[in-house]
Design goal:
The two termini are 28 Å apart. It is globular and about 50 Å long. It has a five-stranded parallel beta sheet with strand order 2-3-1-4-5, sandwiched between helices. Helix 1 crosses helix 9, helix 2 runs antiparallel to helix 3 and helix 3 packs parallel to helix 6. It has a single domain, classed as P-loop containing nucleotide triphosphate hydrolases (Rossmann fold, 3-Layer(aba) Sandwich). It is of the alpha/beta class. Helix content is 52%, strand content 12%. The structure holds thymidine-5'-phosphate (TMP). Thymidine-5'-phosphate binds next to helix 3 and helix 5.
């Protein structure tokens, strides 16, 4: 892929990736608190986003809207929607990632284009389509992949009341494999963390990685 690094000033665009219930949101919140404690402004901005396309996607994931019952077609439709949502998430003038960075906020996103590569393709053809759809999106300044065994993810998911379309053992097994391959080949800045560790241990590794990126800049 030809994605370029995003850096436009000192503020960071940081992404958490991982299978469902791997702890992305919890770690994003801890990182935000860390920034606030160091007198830096920070926001959490998820994908699917809180915008119109993001909300449409959430309805489809809960199967309240059905685009196609054919699985390959459904994945393709989702891939287009996720790419449109990502464009809006990055570039909208109200609360887009780059607007926030210009306004001096660190932006912490739970999920980004790696999720499309990991979740929305089952074949080489689909993988190529998704690569093309996401080719022009910039790489984050740092990506943190939280790796979690499927059994742990599934037992955490069982505690939730409503399950989404991708939250099955077969799907998550494929997704985890895809993630491991994506990050083995990725040439941007990324770290992988064992998601079975204690929350604070994970947080300490996250902070260490963030500090390393900041000191490389200075
Ligand atoms: P969430 O559980 O992090 O809110 O994400 C909702 C679902 O969206 C999750 O199952 C992963 C899926 N997803 C994709 O399939 N492709 C994407 O590009 C993104 C951002 C999320």
């Amino acid at each position: 892929m030809s994605n370029q690094q995003s850096t436009i000033n000192q503020k960071l665009f940081i992404v958490f990736e991982g299978i469902d219930s791997s702890g992305k949101t919890t770690q994003a919140e801890l990182l935000k608190k860390y920034f606030l404690a160091t007198k830096e402004q920070a926001v959490i901005s998820p994908e699917p986003s809180n915008g119109i396309i993001g909300n449409l996607i959430r309805q489809a994931l809960k199967q309240r809207i059905v685009f196609s019952r054919e699985r390959d077609l459904f994945d393709q439709q989702m891939a287009y929607l996720f790419a449109a949502d990502r464009h809006d998430h990055l570039y909208n003038d109200l609360d887009g990632v780059f607007k926030l960075i210009r306004d001096n906020y660190h932006v912490i996103s739970t999920r980004y284009y790696f999720s499309s590569l990991a979740y929305n393709c089952d074949s080489v053809e689909q993988f190529d389509l998704i690569k093309k759809l996401n080719d022009r999106f910039p790489n984050p300044d740092l990506t943190i992949y939280i790796d979690l065994p499927i059994e742990v993810s599934l037992s955490r998911l069982q505690e939730r009341s409503l399950q989404e379309i991708y939250e099955t053992k077969t799907k998550l097994t494929k997704v985890r494999k895809q993630y491991q391959q994506i990050f083995a080949e990725y040439d941007g800045k990324a770290i992988a963390i064992d998601g079975t560790q204690d929350l604070q241990q994970i947080h300490a590794s996250v902070v260490q990685a963030v500090q390393a990126v900041i000191s490389e800049r200075n």
